[in-house]
Design brief:
Oligomer: single chain
Shape: elongated
Number of strands: 0
Structural class: mainly alpha
Largest sheet: none
Distance between the termini: 25 Å
Number of helices: 6
Length: about 140
């Protein structure tokens, strides 16, 4: 058993779970209309709430499964930099009023790490590759 492949699985899945949770939060708690209003209040076009939420959920699932993780993680960086921008004025600590920028900064770096590492051995894409080799 290769520890680095376990580490890739853990970081990829953790990032994916975070994205799914934040996407579902936008739908189930804040609602898409409320999320669109928030985007507008912080300087982003309100319509961006919809593709961002879609990306968070579908991208998160793809990361959890390990399906084209490099591409998903690279696509996640601008989303996370947008979140970082929103929190920049709130101070460093996420416990600051309205959340600081430490968490989005950490997540952006985590996405870069996942992009560098790729899917890893324990991924759905790796399973497909092994099946294709055996046939």
């Amino acid at each position: 058993m290769n520890n680095s492949n376990i580490a890739i699985l853990l970081i990829r899945a953790a990032l994916g779970i975070m994205f799914v949770a934040h996407g579902l939060l936008k739908i189930m708690v804040f609602t898409l209309a409320g999320t669109a209003q928030f985007f507008s209040q912080v300087g982003f076009p309100s319509w961006m709430a919809y593709p961002v939420t879609f990306f968070e959920i579908t991208g998160g699932v793809l990361l959890i499964l390990g399906f084209y993780s490099r591409f998903v993680a690279i696509a996640a960086v601008p989303v996370l930099l947008g979140a970082l921008y929103v929190h920049l004025g709130n101070g460093w600590l996420f416990s600051s009023a309205n959340g600081g920028w430490e968490y989005p900064a950490f997540l952006a770096i985590t996405a870069v790490v996942v992009a560098l590492l790729g899917d890893g051995e324990y991924s759905i894409r790796s399973v497909f590759a092994r099946r294709n080799q055996s046939t």
